[in-house]
Amino acid sequence: MQLSLTCGLDEAGRGPIAGPLTAGSVILPADFPVEILNDSKKLSEKKRDAAEKIIMEKACWGIGIVDHETIDRINILQASMYAMKIAYEMMVARLPAWLASRNIPCPEREEELVSVISAITDGTSCPDISCAVRCEPKADGKYPEVMAASIIAKVERDKMMTEFDAMYPEYGYAKHKGYPTKAHREICHKIGPSPIQRRSFNY
């Protein structure tokens, strides 16, 4: 039977005014418990963390991270596409070993390997990647692979923002994760922007 793999792509962190943007790229195995998945925004933190552990254990995945300085330099849309491309390329690099672990024959050449992958990304723009890719609004609520990508992107970004909270505790990053809450804006106006502030965003 011809090998056919579906890859889901999604990002987390387009809306915040501080911190990085992250993206996930995920291929799920046929026996994955898809009932644990949903759009990451519709899952509690506890359920996201639990799902992320299972995705990391069972799926083939990649994570892309773009920092605040790059976001300011290339804009948030291009940063989203770039993060997805990084995530996808990490996933492809891990794919031969993942297929071997599941006793699935793997094409020898990378061109043959990517020819059996079709990607779906949430939104209206597609990243420049080596496989066939289509974008679809609200894909993170329709396709398990995109749901999984949204989960690992969200969990990774939240972890990073909690680490930044320890570095810059006065900004409250563990609580609002860099989103433009009233408290976040007020502290920026009171003591100035933090070292991870997105200067191209209004804060």
Dominant shape: elongated
In which range does the helix fraction lie?
40-55%
Number of strands: 5
Mean pLDDT: 96
> Are there runs of 5+ residues with pLDDT below 50, and where?
none
Distance between the termini: 54 Å
The total count of helices amounts to 7
How would you describe what is shown here?
By secondary structure, the chain is α/β, with parallel strands linked by helices. Helix content is 45%, strand content 16%. It has seven helices and five strands, in the order ββαβαααββααα. The chain has helices spanning 45-58, 68-74, 76-101, 110-115, 144-167, 173-176, 182-191; strands at 5-12, 21-27, 60-66, 117-122, 132-136. Strands 3-2-1-4-5 form a five-stranded mixed sheet. α1 packs across α5 and α2 packs across α3. The chain is elongated. It starts with a strand and ends in a 12-residue tail after the last helix. The model has no long low-confidence stretch (mean pLDDT 96).
Keywords for this structure?
203 residues; 7 helices; 5-stranded mixed β-sheet; alpha/beta; 5 strands
